[in-house]
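To whoever picks this up:

The parser on our side crashed when reading a file containing two proteins. I've narrowed it down to the boundary between the first structure block and the second sequence. Both blocks are reproduced below exactly, byte for byte. First block:
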Amino acid sequence: MAQHSFSASALIDAPAAKVYGIIADYRNGHPQILPRPHFVSMEVEQGGVGAGTVVNFQMRLMGSVQSFHSVITEPEPGRVLVESEMNQGAVTTFHVEAREDGKKAYVTISTETAVPDGVIGKIQGWMTKRLLQPIYVKELEQLRGVVATP
């Protein structure tokens, strides 16, 4: 198996702590940044904020609904949050970096997933990136809108 990764980033006009707080809050904040119709549903199974949270969510990809089961960790609380998908092994990381004396946040959503070696894996990796990267761009746009709301 080979590793495949892709990401999307945006500068958000809000303090990093506020941005990170929205991302880490899987009960109230995070659901607001998930673009529809791609994200069908999300349920918090355990916890709800940051490390130790376990979520189930469904995404509509290529006309079918796929289910995911992820555990949340915070290798660097307030800066790095990781969603590890327990069944398929994909790892999605949210990096939040303070910029402009803490007045803005540079946010990167990145995913690393295993794909088969060879041509099949390259095609699978390309398709995954093509499907998910635009969704991440929309997610960052929605995050920008959520932080702008008082």
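<<boundary where parser fails>>
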Amino acid sequence: MLFTINELIDLVIMVLAIGYIFSSYFKREPTEGYDPLVYYKKSSFFEDLKQGIIVAAPAIVLHELMHKFVAMGFGVQATLHAPLGWYVIVVVMRLLNFPLLFFVGGYVTHPIMPPLQSSIVSLAGPFTNLLLYLICLAIVRFKIVERKHYNIIGMAGKLNLFLFAFNLIPLPGFDGYNAIMDLIRLL
């Protein structure tokens, strides 16, 4: 089975939590030729939530799913988890307008694997973000979508590039650290 019921529930929670947490960072912008009466009539909360989901959720969810799928590709059972306790803390901080937020997107558990395979699993998430960044770059460079969508694509591209670099930091808890430690075990 690809996903358990608990994983599907965690995925929904992840998307909603990510959307809410990032809703104040990726606010919707009026497009050229917009009608102010229609624009401001829409619920700001739900529009900002939708914008946060559109920009941030694919970057974070696909990052975590790639860890899961690559581990499964190596023949091990991998389980996606939403860090519910951390989400509660960050959502409360967001509600209190805390000036600095930290974020934990999710995590995947799997049995111990051979070092090279485990390293590849660790790097799968960040390299998914790099691929998403390159796709966003290509969409803008080759004008694949209408210009009115460039703002969202640009924000998504920048977030994916940040997640790529951030997750490769070789500190405990980061994918870069896990990959390096696995490669050291290989020696």
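After patching the parser it read the second block fine. The mean pLDDT is 91. The first helix runs from residue 5 to 22.
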